[in-house]
Amino acid sequence: MPDPSTTALGQSNKFLQRAYDLTGATDAEQLYNEWASTYDGDLESEYASPQRTVEAVIKHLDDNKSNLKILDAGCGTGLVGDEFAKSSLKEKFVIDGLDLTPGMLEAARKKGVYQDLETADLTKPINRTDGSYDVVTCVGTLTKGHVGPAVFNEFVRVLRKGGLVAATVHEEIWESGGYKSVVEGLGKAGEVEVVGTEAFGILKGETRGGVMVVLRKN
Ligand SMILES: C[S@@+](CC[C@H](N)C(=O)[O-])C[C@H]1O[C@@H](n2cnc3c(N)ncnc32)[C@H](O)[C@@H]1O
């Protein structure tokens, strides 16, 4: 999600400004329910994270399965699903989505890309069995006032061996929010190979703003 303090889009969009001031799940649900109907239109000209995340998945997938099972955690209105549907993986995947906010899920449902869409609070354990997905994506949701780093443990748990996590973390909280340390801890414990933690541009035409975390489950 673009930073409201440093981008024209951020300064002009009242929802984006509120999103960076969130303090917890109740605030988040209220904001995103209000934002759901205009979210895609507000961000579409500038927001690059969904496309860049799908590119990261495609770059690091090590098999050519024709029926990839993807979990999109914090799916919002489904921009990540839209990008998968436009990518070289189209017709080779099914995607499920989880999100805190019913209004955002309703917008995603209307697109007809996701198989299963459910409300979920990602600060709590994910209601999915171990090893049930090939890929977990999480885009724009590991950001200020949203979801903390412990969720990486859950992403790894629901992945099959060899499966990929591709998740964006806002660069300002990558270290201070504890994400770097959780990701490195998973690597040191041998649970994952840390494939990448590269800086990337949340906005089109930019190269900074977020950290693209790619993990492969051991
Ligand atoms: C900036 S949007 C990103 C949505 C989508 N992935 C995208 O890139 O457009 C952040 C999303 O996180 C969701 N969210 C915020 N807190 C959450 C929580 N505790 N559990 C699950 N989802 C949460 C919001 O409802 C919202 O849909």
Q: List the ligand species.
A: S-adenosylmethionine
* CATH domain fold name: Rossmann fold
* Rg measurement, Å: 16 Å
Highest-level CATH class: Alpha Beta
Pfam families: Methyltransf_25
Organism: Zasmidium cellare
Domain Methyltransferase: 70-163
Protein name: Methyltransferase domain-containing protein
Reconstruct the topology from this structure.
Elements: H1 8-12, H2 14-19, H3 25-35, H4 39-43, H5 49-60, E1 68-73, H6 79-86, E2 93-99, H7 102-111, E3 116-119, E4 133-142, H8 151-158, E5 159-170, H9 179-188, E6 192-201, E7 209-217
Parallel strand pairs: 1-2, 1-4, 2-3, 4-5
Antiparallel strand pairs: 5-7, 6-7
Bound molecules: S-adenosylmethionine.
Task: Describe the protein.
This is Methyltransferase domain-containing protein. Pfam families: Methyltransf_25. InterPro entries: Methyltransf_25, Methyltransf_Superfamily, SAM-dependent_MTases_sf. Residues 70-163 form the Methyltransferase domain. The structure is a single chain. This protein is of the alpha/beta class and 218 residues long. It has a single domain, classed as Rossmann fold (3-Layer(aba) Sandwich). Helices cover 34% and strands 27% of the residues. It has helices spanning 8-12, 14-19, 25-35, 39-43, 49-60, 79-86, 102-111, 151-158, 179-188, and strands spanning 68-73, 93-99, 116-119, 133-142, 159-170, 192-201, 209-217. A 7-stranded mixed β-sheet has the order 3-2-1-4-5-7-6, sandwiched between helices. β1, α6 and β2 (93-99) form a beta-alpha-beta unit. α5 crosses α6 (79-86). The chain is globular, with a radius of gyration of 16 Å. The model has no long low-confidence stretch (mean pLDDT 93). The structure holds S-adenosylmethionine. The site of S-adenosylmethionine has 24 residues, from α3, α5, α6 and β4.
